[in-house]
Write a structure and sequence with these properties.
Structural class: alpha+beta
Number of strands: 12
Helix content: 40-55%
Largest sheet: 5 strands, mixed
CATH superfamily of the largest domain: Reverse transcriptase/Diguanylate cyclase domain
Radius of gyration: 24 Å
DNA sequence: TCTGGGGTCCTAGGACCC
DNA sequence: TCTGGGGTCCTAGGACCC
C-alpha cells in the first residue's frame, strides 16, 4: 500500500520565530514585513546572515553572506541576534502539535520534520485537508507559517515543500515528477551540492530530468555511491522510512571561529580549554563518555585539517578532554595561523559503563566531581556564574561561552 | 572585514592479521 | 627471501545537509 508522507518546513524559521516572540512582547513592526535578518555579531568576521525576510531577499541578500555585505545592499537593514534556546523550544512545540495528527513524526532538523499520514485520512480527511489542519494549527499556536510537501516518500515530500513559498501546500506524487520536478536545475535536487552539480554539468546534465533519463550504471561508475543516490532521487525513488524514534547522537562537537587568527600554542590552549568545557558539559548532560577525540583546525586560507585519537579508556571530564585535545593539537599543528578550532567527541558509551571501568583513577574521578559541580551551578545560575581563572580577560572566554548565550533583552532590542 | 556552527555519511589508503 | 589475497579496523579528508 502506498504511504502518504508530509514534509513540514517553517518559512524563514529563525526570523519567523523571533518575529513571533517580539510580537508577543508588543514589539513592532513585524520583522517579516521589513528588510530584516537574523545574524551574529555584525562587526566581527563571524557575522553572517542566518535567515532573512522576504523584503530583505528583494535587496539581493542571501543566507550565509557576511552581515557587512548585506548592510551594503540595504543600509536600513534590521539585524537581530539569534536565540538558539528559543529555536529549540519552538522546534519541540512544533513536533508536539504535529504529533496530534500522526504518531509517526521524525525531526529532520530544528525547523523541518517528516510526518507519516498513512491511514490518518479516517480522522482528518484527505492529505490536503490534513495538511491544511496542521498548517492552521501551527499558525494559530505559534504565529508562524509553514510549507508542507505531500507525496508517497520522504524525498518527494521534501522536494515538494521547497516549491513556492511561504505558507503553501504542494503535492509531488509520482505522476507529477515529470512536470513538476524534472524541469528544475540539477542543483535543486536534494543531496546535489556544489561539487556534484559541477561534475554533472561536465557531462552535460543540467536538469533533474537529464539525470533521471541518464543511464544508472554509467552514473554509478562516474560518481560511485553518490551517483546511484542522485539517479534514484532524480527518479523519485526513496525507500527510507519515517523514523519516529529518537536516534542517539553519534558525535558531539564544539568549535569557534576566532576574533583574530591564532599564532601561538598558548592562545590555542586557551581556546581548547574553553571548547573542552563546552563539549564536556554537553557530553555529561547526556550521561555519556567518549573514546575518540578529534581536533580540527581551519587555517587562514580556509583549509581544514583534522587529527583524531582513539583512547584506551573512555573520557568525560573537561580535564581529560582538554589534555588529549592539547596532545592532538601539538601533534598536528604546523605553526600556520589558525582561523577556527573544533573539538569533536565520538564513539560513546554510557557513563554507567565507565563507572565500573578498571582504569578510572583518582585524578579522573576528582576531575569529574569538580565538573559535575560546575555543571550544576551553571544549570542553576547561567553559564557565566563561574569561569576558569585562566580564561578571564582572554576575550576568548567571552567568544566561547557567550556564542549561543544570548539574553532575552538583546534579542528584543 | 569574504566565507558560522553543528551534524551525518562515504571513500581511500595503510596497518595488521590469517 | 619473496610472494598472494581477503578481511577488518583505523585515520584523514571531503561531500552534503540545515
Amino acid at each position: 500500500m502506498e504511504r502518504i508522507i508530509f514534509h513540514i518546513d517553517v518559512n524563514s524559521a529563525f526570523l519567523s520565530w523571533t518575529a513571533a516572540k517580539r510580537i508577543k512582547y508588543g514589539l513592532f513592526p513585524d520583522l517579516r514585513e521589513i528588510p530584516a535578518v537574523i545574524g551574529g555579531r555584525e562587526h566581527s568576521r563571524t557575522g553572517i546572515v542566518l535567515a532573512k525576510s522576504i523584503s530583505a531577499k528583494k535587496f539581493g541578500i542571501q543566507t550565509g553572506e557576511p552581515l557587512y555585505k548585506a548592510k551594503e545592499k540595504c543600509p536600513d537593514l534590521k539585524i537581530v541576534h539569534p536565540d538558539f534556546k528559543l529555536y529549540n523550544e519552538c522546534s519541540k512545540k512544533m513536533i508536539d502539535i504535529c504529533t496530534k495528527y500522526s504518531p509517526f513524526v521524525e525531526q529532520f532538523s530544528v525547523d523541518e520534520l517528516f510526518l507519516d499520514y498513512t491511514n490518518m485520512e479516517y480522522h482528518f480527511g484527505s492529505p490536503i485537508n490534513g495538511a491544511k489542519l496542521i498548517s492552521e494549527a501551527i499558525k494559530k499556536e505559534m504565529g508562524v507559517t509553514v510549507n508542507i510537501g505531500i507525496s508517497n516518500n520522504k524525498l518527494l515530500a521534501k522536494m515538494a515543500s521547497d516549491f513556492e513559498k511561504p505558507d503553501k501546500i504542494h503535492t509531488l506524487f509520482p505522476d507529477e515528477i515529470q512536470s513538476k520536478m524534472w524541469p528544475l536545475p540539477v542543483s535543486e535536487l536534494f543531496m546535489v551540492g556544489r561539487k556534484t552539480e559541477e561534475k554533472l554539468k561536465n557531462i552535460g546534465l543540467y536538469t533533474i530530468g537529464d539525470v533521471a533519463r541518464c543511464d544508472r550504471k554509467f552514473l554509478r561508475s562516474y560518481l560511485k555511491e553518490q551517483g546511484e543516490l542522485t539517479w534514484c532521487y532524480a527518479n523519485g525513488i526513496d525507500i527510507s522510512k519515517v523514523n519516529h524514534k529518537e536516534s542517539e547522537a553519534k558525535s558531539i562537537g564544539n568549535g569557534a571561529t576566532l576574533p583574530k587568527n591564532i599564532t601561538t600554542s598558548k592562545s590555542a590552549y586557551s581556546v581548547l580549554l574553553g571548547l573542552a568545557e563546552k563539549v564536556g558539559e554537553r557530553l555529561r548532560k547526556k550521561k555519556l563518555t567518549a573514546t575518540v577525540i578529534s581536533v580540527s583546525l581551519k587555517s587562514s586560507d580556509f583549509k581544514t585539517y583534522s587529527h583524531q585519537k582513539a583512547l584506551y579508556s573512555p573520557v568525560s571530564s573537561t580535564y581529560e578532554i582538554f589534555h588529549y585535545s592539547k596532545e592532538i593539537f601539538n601533534e598536528m599543528w604546523n605553526c600556520s595561523p589558525i582561523r577556527a578550532i573544533t573539538i569533536t567527541l565520538t564513539e560513546f558509551q554510557t557513563s554507567e559503563d565507565m563507572q565500573c571501568c578498571f582504569f578510572t583513577n583518582e585524578i579522573t574521578s576528582k576531575a569529574l566531581k569538580t565538573d559535575n559541580s560546575i555543571d550544576d551551578l551553571r544549570a542553576k545560575y547561567g553559564h557565566n556564574c563561574i569561569m576558569r581563572a585562566s580564561l578571564i580577560n582572554t576575550h576568548l572566554s567571552h567568544k566561547i561561552t557567550n556564542a549561543q548565550d544570548t539574553t532575552l533583552k538583546s534579542n528584543l532590542n
